[in-house]
């Protein structure tokens, strides 16, 4: 056997070539070439990380990479601007109408198919293990807020989990809103810099948490508002949908 053949086996060479493909081609066209390619993509840890199916701890935590395919289809979850204001009055809150107008709502086959690959995709690399849940509630008694940290996602936060956590909040009604704070620590720093001597609202509640999550889902709902269940569209399907 030649030295080059011992150093780079054919499978390893093919894996290296596949890693040079763009994510969409690797996920779709490459797997349909032949069974060998399909099995290699399914079995290769490196290729599974490239497709956001497995956590990649090699990605620097301070420079996370959000899933580009999910960001393209599930736009409202990834429409992110760290410079926006913290709190319920901040910009980039998305309402029911925003979700309904998103590309994913116009492609129901993608959402309803129970084996859709997006459901098991990680939302970012390195994987999100802890997700903050910052809830603003409005009612006759005024404004109340809670900051929770969801149970850890030991294998990373997948889009399916984020999808259904979001719509649990959206069911409150047409004027419920949700936005993702993908770099929550940066939001806190910016908030402090804008208002010297003041403390961002959730800081006191964060003090009771063992850690500050980097990613937070912020929601705003009104107690007593109705219409949520009756207006749920097909894209807000239950987990058991075929």
UniProtKB/TrEMBL annotation:
Annotated ranges, domain F-box: 10-52
InterPro entries linked: F-box-like_dom_sf, F-box_dom
A Pfam family reported for this protein in Swiss-Prot or TrEMBL: F-box-like
Source organism, top-level taxon: Eukaryota
Name of protein: F-box domain-containing protein
């Amino acid at each position: 056997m030649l030295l080059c053949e011992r150093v780079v086996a054919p499978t390893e060479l093919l894996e290296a070539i596949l890693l040079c493909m763009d994510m969409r081609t690797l996920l779709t066209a490459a797997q349909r070439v032949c069974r060998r390619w399909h099995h290699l993509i399914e079995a290769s840890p490196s290729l599974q990380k490239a497709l956001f199916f497995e956590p990649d701890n090699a990605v620097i935590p301070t420079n996370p990479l959000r899933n580009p395919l999910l960001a393209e289809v599930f736009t409202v979850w990834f429409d992110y601007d760290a410079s926006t204001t913290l709190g319920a009055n901040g910009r980039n809150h998305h309402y029911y109408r925003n979700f309904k107008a998103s590309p994913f709502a116009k492609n129901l086959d993608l959402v309803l198919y129970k084996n859709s690959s997006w459901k098991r995709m990680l939302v970012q690399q390195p994987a999100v293990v802890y997700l903050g849940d910052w809830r603003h509630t409005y009612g006759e008694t005024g404004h109340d807020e809670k900051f929770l940290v969801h149970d850890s996602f030991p294998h990373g936060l997948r889009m399916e989990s984020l999808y259904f956590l979001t719509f649990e909040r959206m069911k409150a009604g047409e004027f419920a809103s949700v936005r993702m704070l993908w770099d929550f620590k940066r939001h806190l720093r910016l908030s402090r810099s804008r208002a010297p001597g003041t403390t961002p609202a959730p800081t006191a509640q964060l003090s009771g948490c063992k850690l500050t999550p980097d990613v937070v889902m912020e929601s705003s709902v009104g107690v007593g508002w109705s219409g949520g269940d009756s207006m749920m569209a097909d894209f807000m399907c239950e987990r058991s949908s075929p």
